[in-house]
Structure formats: C-alpha cells, structure tokens
Predict the structure.
Amino acid sequence: MKSDQIEETQASDALRKRWGRILENSFDEIYLFAADNLHFLHVSRGALQNLGYTMREMRQLTAIDIKPEINATEFAALLEPLRDGRQERVVFETFHQRKDGSRYPVEVRLQFAAEESPPVFIAIILDITERQQAEQTVLESEQRYQALARIAPVGIFRTDVGGNCIYVNERWCQIAGMHPEQALGEGWSAALHPEDRERVFNEWHQAAKMQVPFYTECRFQRPDGTVSWLLSRATAEQDIKGDVIGYVGTITDISKQKKIEDELRIHRDHLEELVSKRTHAMEAANRELEAFAYSVSHDLRAPLRAIDGFSHALEEDCADAVGDLGRDYLRRVRAASQRMGCLIDEILQLARMTKSDMQWSDVDMSKLANEAVDRLREAETGRRVDVQVAPDMLVTGDKTLLGVVLDNLIGNAWKYTGEKDHACIEIGVLEQDEELVYFVKDNGAGFDMSYAGKLFGIFQRMHKADEFEGTGIGLATVQRIVLRHNGRVWAEAEAGKGATFFFTLGGQNRS
C-alpha cells in the first residue's frame, strides 16, 4: 500500500473513531460520506436499522446509491453550493431505498465539513412518511371540501380572522350576483343591502367578540337591483392551538319563506280584523239577547199570567156554560201558556249562561251526577231506572254550570228512556288521545244521526212534542257551557237504540 493511501486510511479511521461513539448510539438517520468519492464513511444506528444494511455493506455504497430518483449530475449540483461556500446548508426532499427495495420519503439536510480530514459531507435525514401522509390527508380533505362546496345548494364562504373574504363557492356567487374575485377581501360586503349592512357588521363583530356562532337574516342586493332574503350562519375556524384563524359560514336563500311569512302576516292581520268585527258583532248580539231576555222577563210574563189566570177562572167558574169542548179548549190554552212560561225560563237561563262570570273550582262530577239522579227519582218515584255513575270524576270548572250540564243530559236520558221496560243510564269517563271524555249514555229512543247537526240549536227537537215534552233549549245550553270550559260536545245515536252524549272540558288531561 502506498504511503498516501495509508495516510488516507488512517485519517478515515480517525474520523470514524471521533464520530463512531455518537453515531452508534443515535436512532436518528445521520450519514458521513467522503467529499471526493461520496462513499459512506460512517452512518448512525438509526440509519442502519431503517435501511437494513450492515456497516460493512454501507461502506461499499455511495450517497447516490440509496437515492434512486437522483442521478450523479443532479446530486453534484446539489453539493456544489456547499463545496464553494455559497451556502452553509442544503435542504431538499427525495426518496431513500432500503436493501429490500422499498422506498420511503425523506427530507435531507446536507452540510460540508471541510475542516475534517478527509473533508466529508454530513447528511441528517428526516423520515417524512407521516408528514406526507398528513399532507395528503389534508389535501384530500381540502379536495373533498372543494367538491362539496361546488355542488352545495347553499352559499359557502370563508374569511380570515379580520373578516376579509378568502373563498366563496358557486352558489354564493349565484345568490349575490357576483364573480368570485369580486367577493374577495371586503368586496363581499357590496352584496349586502345598504339598509342591512351596518346591522350585519355589528352582529358579526359582537359574535366574534363573544366567541359565539354568527347567525342573522339579511338581504343581498344584486347589481341588477333584485333582492334576496338570506339566512347567514358562520362559526370560527381554529388552528391546532385553539387560536381563531378565520371563519367559515353559509348563506341560504329564504326569500320564499319570507314571502310566505309576509302573506301569513297579512292573513293574520286580516283574520284579527275579522275576529275583532265578529267579536263586536257577538257583543252586540249578546246585548240584544240581554235586552230580549229583559223584555221577555218583564213584558211577556204579565200577559201569560193573565192568559193562564183567566183561563183557569173560566174553567172553574164557567165550566157548565162552556161545555166539554170549551173546557178542552181552555186546558189547551193553559198548557200552551205554561209551556211558553217554561220557554221564557229556559231562554233566560241560556242568556245567563252566556253572560255570567265563571267561578272556577275543583268539582266532583260524580257527586253532581248522583244528585241529579236523586232529584229525578224523587220526582218520579214509580219509575225503575238502572243508573250507573263512575266514581271520582274530579274536574276543574264552574260547579253551578257543570251541574246544569248534567241536569240537562241526565234529564234527557231519563226522559227518552221513559218507554223502556228496563231503562239504563250510564254516566262515566273514558280516555281518547290522552284527553278525558265524559259521557251520558242511555238505551232510550235515540235519534237519526242524519239530523245530528241540529241537536245543539235553539228550539231544535229530534222528536215531536206529543211524544216527549221539552222546549229544545237544553242542549243549546249544554253546548254554551261546555264551550265556556274550552271543551266540545257531540253525540252518537241510533233511532230506537239509545244515544250517547260526549263532552270534554279543556285542560282536563290524563296525568
């Protein structure tokens, strides 16, 4: 071996000795290769493990051998600024190839150590596989975002932390009537309707200050003057440290909804006007009913009493003179006048049902029903009627008015079962759609359901007066009282097979 070769080998051995202890314990990829022939002189433990070579095998390779995508000329060009001192460090990305042929991306940081003997290049390698995967994931995510933004049915925008627009999608441009470049920076604000601009800015700054999502309804005015109503939402974008770096949001065209709201508001105002007129008309009708009731009470009772009184006097004092036919006529006159008196009483009662103030309290409906039945039994001691009353029917309402309801409904059931050998009446409660429904059921005369619409009208009767007595006001009274309790009333029946009257009282729900 020549003396210069011996000196070179001794120098290389000395270099390896100086760097060996450091590199043998380092799991990072560090390479020392000769400045003249680019052969590896020493590599770190981490480099050997990652590449799969032994140290002996590595010393047979050059720095170019493990970089399959860079040729000698390209590598020399990368080293040139280090050799001539123009740069202290060169950084680039490439691939390293392992012994098994697999490749992995790396970031190479090269420095030239001219003071070493012999001069060497020091390469510190960073495996950037995870970084590239993360960058690829971000890129794919951004591409998906862009694709979704392009086809989204809502306008999408992004701003920097100062509110300057950095992106809008196609739908945003369609709604605003602007090109994307016109919206960037502060240009997007030109689309805001002048009357809404200051308000939107204030709401935006307030939301940003309080770090809450931005939400508003505003108008966009296109360059051609047409206006669209929008619902705009935005939320802050944060970096990995949690710092706000901008905002992302959407705009939705709600012009149709706004038009519908305007139409509904017009209809509501019109309806309120109609309700007001109807209320005034109803108040006028009630006043007329009160006046009529007063007139009936004071003006009709006196002549009716006179008709009944004189008819009775004629019947008693002049019986022989008028004969049998005359007495029959007088009885009819008296019956008609008494029936008229009953009508007057019930009309007055109906008027009171409409006018009187409600006295709300807890009411035992079972007790009221039993009391009504007891009164009917006392009035007709000879009748046998099977009556069943459900227990514990507790409600909230006007006790007096609810008593009138039960008196009328139970009284009707009692009356219309008069021709039954085995009369049955049931007063109870059931649940329908989470609502309590009260009922009075009988097996009496019933009626044809085709006439059910007339049931609750004044003076409406389902049967002839000579079949069953009555004035035709009782059910109208029932309906008035039930309505005052925010409820409803209806009936189901079949001619000859009985009837069932149902009613609800608003707010009496199953708990």
About this structure: The chain is about 45% helix and 25% strand.
